[in-house]
Design brief:
Length: 161
Protein backbone atom coordinates (compact mmCIF):
# COMPACT_ATOMS: atom_id res chain seq x y z
CA UNK A 1 0.00 0.00 0.00
CA UNK A 2 2.87 2.35 0.75
CA UNK A 3 4.18 1.97 -2.82
CA UNK A 4 0.88 3.25 -4.19
CA UNK A 5 0.92 6.28 -1.90
CA UNK A 6 4.44 7.18 -3.01
CA UNK A 7 3.54 6.64 -6.67
CA UNK A 8 0.39 8.78 -6.50
CA UNK A 9 2.20 11.54 -4.61
CA UNK A 10 4.92 11.57 -7.28
CA UNK A 11 2.35 11.80 -10.08
CA UNK A 12 0.54 14.69 -8.38
CA UNK A 13 3.84 16.51 -7.81
CA UNK A 14 4.73 16.11 -11.49
CA UNK A 15 1.35 17.51 -12.52
CA UNK A 16 1.81 20.47 -10.17
CA UNK A 17 5.30 21.08 -11.56
CA UNK A 18 3.98 21.15 -15.13
CA UNK A 19 1.19 23.54 -14.17
CA UNK A 20 3.63 25.86 -12.37
CA UNK A 21 6.14 25.78 -15.23
CA UNK A 22 3.69 26.84 -17.90
CA UNK A 23 2.06 29.64 -15.92
CA UNK A 24 -1.53 29.98 -14.94
CA UNK A 25 -4.57 32.03 -15.88
CA UNK A 26 -7.48 33.33 -13.85
CA UNK A 27 -10.54 35.40 -14.56
CA UNK A 28 -10.78 38.82 -12.97
CA UNK A 29 -13.83 40.96 -13.73
CA UNK A 30 -14.60 38.92 -16.84
CA UNK A 31 -11.08 39.24 -18.27
CA UNK A 32 -8.53 36.46 -18.35
CA UNK A 33 -5.23 37.45 -16.74
CA UNK A 34 -2.25 35.13 -17.24
CA UNK A 35 1.06 35.04 -15.47
CA UNK A 36 3.93 35.39 -17.93
CA UNK A 37 5.65 32.27 -19.17
CA UNK A 38 9.24 32.85 -20.13
CA UNK A 39 10.72 30.86 -22.96
CA UNK A 40 14.25 31.93 -22.03
CA UNK A 41 15.74 32.93 -18.72
CA UNK A 42 17.07 36.15 -20.31
CA UNK A 43 13.51 37.35 -21.02
CA UNK A 44 12.55 37.13 -17.36
CA UNK A 45 15.74 38.74 -16.10
CA UNK A 46 15.56 41.53 -18.66
CA UNK A 47 12.04 42.46 -17.60
CA UNK A 48 13.20 42.96 -14.00
CA UNK A 49 16.35 44.85 -15.01
CA UNK A 50 14.76 47.62 -17.05
CA UNK A 51 11.41 49.25 -16.37
CA UNK A 52 10.75 50.16 -20.02
CA UNK A 53 7.71 48.58 -21.63
CA UNK A 54 9.77 47.37 -24.59
CA UNK A 55 11.68 44.98 -22.34
CA UNK A 56 8.55 43.48 -20.80
CA UNK A 57 7.83 39.92 -21.98
CA UNK A 58 4.85 39.45 -24.20
CA UNK A 59 2.17 37.43 -22.45
CA UNK A 60 1.13 34.81 -24.94
CA UNK A 61 -2.49 33.86 -25.17
CA UNK A 62 -2.83 30.43 -23.63
CA UNK A 63 -4.87 27.65 -25.03
CA UNK A 64 -7.46 26.37 -22.59
CA UNK A 65 -6.69 22.64 -22.77
CA UNK A 66 -2.89 22.86 -22.85
CA UNK A 67 -2.33 22.19 -19.13
CA UNK A 68 -4.78 19.24 -18.95
CA UNK A 69 -3.16 17.85 -22.12
CA UNK A 70 0.30 17.98 -20.53
CA UNK A 71 -1.04 16.56 -17.26
CA UNK A 72 -2.58 13.64 -19.19
CA UNK A 73 0.81 13.00 -20.82
CA UNK A 74 2.42 12.80 -17.39
CA UNK A 75 -0.28 10.52 -16.01
CA UNK A 76 0.14 8.24 -19.04
CA UNK A 77 3.86 7.93 -18.29
CA UNK A 78 3.05 7.28 -14.61
CA UNK A 79 0.49 4.62 -15.54
CA UNK A 80 2.94 2.89 -17.83
CA UNK A 81 5.57 2.96 -15.07
CA UNK A 82 3.12 1.51 -12.54
CA UNK A 83 2.10 -1.22 -14.98
CA UNK A 84 5.72 -2.15 -15.68
CA UNK A 85 6.56 -2.18 -11.96
CA UNK A 86 3.58 -4.40 -11.16
CA UNK A 87 4.41 -6.90 -13.93
CA UNK A 88 8.19 -7.10 -13.44
CA UNK A 89 9.41 -10.65 -12.90
CA UNK A 90 5.94 -12.22 -13.04
CA UNK A 91 4.54 -14.64 -15.58
CA UNK A 92 3.32 -12.74 -18.66
CA UNK A 93 0.19 -13.79 -20.56
CA UNK A 94 1.00 -11.72 -23.67
CA UNK A 95 3.44 -13.73 -25.83
CA UNK A 96 4.79 -10.56 -27.44
CA UNK A 97 5.95 -9.19 -24.06
CA UNK A 98 7.34 -12.45 -22.65
CA UNK A 99 11.04 -13.13 -22.25
CA UNK A 100 12.51 -16.56 -23.08
CA UNK A 101 11.51 -17.94 -19.65
CA UNK A 102 7.91 -16.67 -19.94
CA UNK A 103 8.30 -13.76 -17.51
CA UNK A 104 8.05 -10.00 -17.97
CA UNK A 105 11.50 -8.40 -18.04
CA UNK A 106 13.43 -6.08 -20.37
CA UNK A 107 11.90 -7.26 -23.65
CA UNK A 108 8.40 -6.38 -22.51
CA UNK A 109 9.58 -3.16 -20.90
CA UNK A 110 11.25 -1.97 -24.09
CA UNK A 111 8.17 -2.79 -26.17
CA UNK A 112 5.87 -0.95 -23.73
CA UNK A 113 8.14 2.09 -23.46
CA UNK A 114 8.59 2.20 -27.24
CA UNK A 115 4.86 1.98 -27.90
CA UNK A 116 4.03 4.65 -25.34
CA UNK A 117 6.77 6.94 -26.65
CA UNK A 118 5.53 6.52 -30.22
CA UNK A 119 2.00 7.31 -29.09
CA UNK A 120 3.13 10.45 -27.25
CA UNK A 121 5.11 11.64 -30.27
CA UNK A 122 2.12 10.98 -32.54
CA UNK A 123 -0.27 12.93 -30.28
CA UNK A 124 2.25 15.78 -30.05
CA UNK A 125 2.51 15.98 -33.84
CA UNK A 126 -1.27 15.86 -34.19
CA UNK A 127 -1.64 18.65 -31.61
CA UNK A 128 0.87 20.83 -33.45
CA UNK A 129 -0.81 20.28 -36.81
CA UNK A 130 -4.38 20.57 -35.47
CA UNK A 131 -4.45 22.68 -32.25
CA UNK A 132 -8.19 22.09 -31.80
CA UNK A 133 -7.44 18.44 -31.03
CA UNK A 134 -6.00 19.32 -27.60
CA UNK A 135 -9.22 18.51 -25.74
CA UNK A 136 -9.90 15.11 -27.39
CA UNK A 137 -6.24 14.16 -27.08
CA UNK A 138 -6.26 15.08 -23.38
CA UNK A 139 -9.26 12.79 -22.86
CA UNK A 140 -7.69 10.03 -24.97
CA UNK A 141 -4.42 10.10 -23.02
CA UNK A 142 -6.27 10.34 -19.71
CA UNK A 143 -8.42 7.33 -20.60
CA UNK A 144 -5.36 5.37 -21.67
CA UNK A 145 -3.60 6.18 -18.43
CA UNK A 146 -6.62 5.08 -16.40
CA UNK A 147 -6.55 1.71 -18.20
CA UNK A 148 -2.86 1.35 -17.38
CA UNK A 149 -3.46 2.22 -13.70
CA UNK A 150 -6.30 -0.32 -13.56
CA UNK A 151 -4.00 -2.97 -15.06
CA UNK A 152 -1.32 -2.17 -12.48
CA UNK A 153 -3.81 -2.45 -9.61
CA UNK A 154 -5.11 -5.76 -10.98
CA UNK A 155 -1.53 -7.06 -11.38
CA UNK A 156 -0.80 -6.26 -7.73
CA UNK A 157 -3.89 -8.17 -6.60
CA UNK A 158 -2.83 -11.31 -8.48
CA UNK A 159 -0.11 -13.68 -7.22
CA UNK A 160 3.19 -13.52 -9.06
CA UNK A 161 4.16 -17.01 -10.32
Amino acid sequence: MRRWCVLLRTVFLLIAAVAATYGSCLKLDGQEVCTPTYTRLDDGLQSFASPSSAAMPVIQEKQRWLTPYRASQITLIGGMTADIASSWGCAEANPMLRSADGRFYMKGTLIKVGGTSAGLVLTHLLKRKFPKLEKPLAFLLGGSSSVLYYTAIRNHSMPCY
